[in-house]
Design brief:
Blueprint (H helix, E strand, L loop, with lengths): L2 E7 L2 E6 L2 E3 L5 E3 L3 E6 L3 E9 L1 H16 L14 H19 L12 E9 L5 E5 L5 E3 L6 E5 L5 H7 L6 H18 L7 E7 L8 E4 L4 H20 L14
């Protein structure tokens, strides 16, 4: 399993992904799920992946190969004229890969599935964020849906719903996402560190700051510890629940 999030902010985009993949409790690996393509001054495109590792690696490899020798292959992801076209291209590639890998029979239908988050900016267009489904179709973020989650989404969602602010700075967005990831990691063994993050500032047309947060990262340890204490303090501060007093019947 995995956990990836893409946030759309007034200032740009923030994306974060874990790196754990597993096919059982004794078969655990670390794979990068954050991918970047950029042509400085022209386009900056970011992709996070969730699902079957062979499928997602094939999609990324195809997209990557087309950027290196696109004259001899299908058009490059960097040659698209809008982020909508990028999302459509990524969706078509995902659908083709799943169709190629999937053997006959209903049982294997879900085995090769993957879901992707793609975001970025091309030229003078606005930064945009999409979630791409295994069928190849996709949806775009909006004022009502300003962030996307893929993978193991339920544990980290409450903090995003309550604390997300479109006008927050990049630093606060990273802090918010780390709390979301920490909640997910503590509740689900299929999600784990290291965590990769990528920032994109609107209008820059180049990838912004990025990094990898490991288990020994002091800031992450502090976030995890302080957040746990804050939750316990908030719980203790809530009004006590009182059970109704029982009226004893008299014989």
């Amino acid at each position: 399993m995995t956990y990836c999030v893409g946030l759309q902010l007034s200032r740009g985009l923030v994306m974060m992904s874990d790196t754990r993949t597993n096919a059982g409790i004794d078969n655990i690996s670390t794979f990068r799920k954050m991918h970047v393509w950029s042509r400085p001054g022209s386009s900056a495109i970011f992709l996070t992946t969730s699902g079957n590792v062979a499928t997602t690696q094939a999609v990324v490899s195809i997209l990557d190969e087309r950027t290196k020798a696109h004259k001899a292959r299908s058009p490059s992801i960097l040659d698209q004229e809008s982020m909508f076209q990028v999302a459509r291209m990524v969706g078509e590639t995902l659908r083709e890969v799943i169709s190629t890998y999937r053997p006959a029979g209903m049982e294997a239908d879900g085995s090769f599935n993957a879901t992707l988050i793609v975001g970025g900016q091309i030229g003078t267009g606005e930064p945009r964020l999409f979630m791409v489904y295994p069928e190849g179709n996709f949806i775009e973020s909006s004022a009502d849906t300003p962030f996307f989650q893929i993978g193991e989404t339920k544990y980290g969602r409450p903090i995003l719903v309550r604390a997300y602010d479109r006008d927050m700075g990049f630093e606060d967005a990273i802090k918010l996402l780390l709390v979301s990831f920490d909640s997910t990691i503590k509740a689900n063994l299929s999600v784990d560190l290291p965590i990769d993050y990528q920032i994109y500032e609107a209008g820059s047309l180049v990838p912004g700051p990025s990094g990898r947060i490991t288990r020994d990262d002091r800031y992450y340890q502090t976030i995890s510890e302080v957040w746990g204490k804050a939750l316990r303090a908030a719980f203790d501060s809530l009004p006590d629940f009182r059970l109704p007093e029982r009226t004893l019947s008299r014989n």
